[in-house]
Specification:
The chain is an alpha+beta fold and 165 residues long. 27% of the residues lie in helices and 21% in strands. Strands 1, 2, 3, 4, 5 and 6 form a six-stranded antiparallel beta sheet that branches. α1 packs antiparallel against α2. The protein starts with a strand and ends in a 9-residue tail after the last strand.
Length: 165
């Protein structure tokens, strides 16, 4: 079994869409754990604030199979694959880490993980002892060195999504 981290974020009806994504992630990956959800400003464009969190789970699935499931969940949440990169998102699910795998073609580890507080902080919360495969430090160590004042994260509570929603 391999430990996997996935970032989830939305700034289009984020509470409802993240609750739906969390429900679907729990079905697809039994035993999934979720970080606290955080509100933070959009990065790269002017837009509504995002709500982000990180999911952690163990799996025997290969990375490509996980990506296929993540894309299906994004579609269920209203994500269009051809949407512009720096624009509002109904749902964004990004594979951050797949154990210690380094696979540049799959963007593993996620290149901006150690630079984005809305990924790194929640990742350190759900998997503090997980080691970043290229930086050699645990997520907790990376987070302890991060300049958190530059990009505030505000915790938010998410209501669970009703079944089928």
């Amino acid at each position: 079994m391999t430990q996997v981290l996935v970032a989830a974020g939305s700034n289009v009806e984020p509470g409802r869409r993240l609750a739906t994504a969390m429900r679907e992630l729990a079905v697809a990956f039994p035993g999934v754990r979720f970080s606290t959800a955080y509100r933070n400003a959009a990065v790269g464009f002017e837009g509504e604030d995002f709500i982000n969190l990180v999911a952690a789970f163990d799996t025997g699935l290969p990375p490509q199979a996980i990506l296929e499931r993540l894309h299906a969940i994004e579609a269920l949440c209203g994500r269009e694959r051809d949407a512009p990169k720096w624009a509002p998102r109904s749902m964004d699910l990004d594979l951050l880490l797949y154990g210690d795998l380094e696979a540049p073609g799959l963007r593993l580890p996620r290149p901006d993980l150690a630079r984005r507080p809305y990924m790194l902080g929640p990742a350190a919360q759900v998997a503090p002892g997980m080691r970043h495969p290229t930086l050699g430090l645990t997520l907790a160590e990376l987070w302890s060195r991060f300049d958190r004042d530059a990009h505030a994260l505000v915790p938010v509570a998410l209501a669970p999504a009703p079944p089928g929603n």
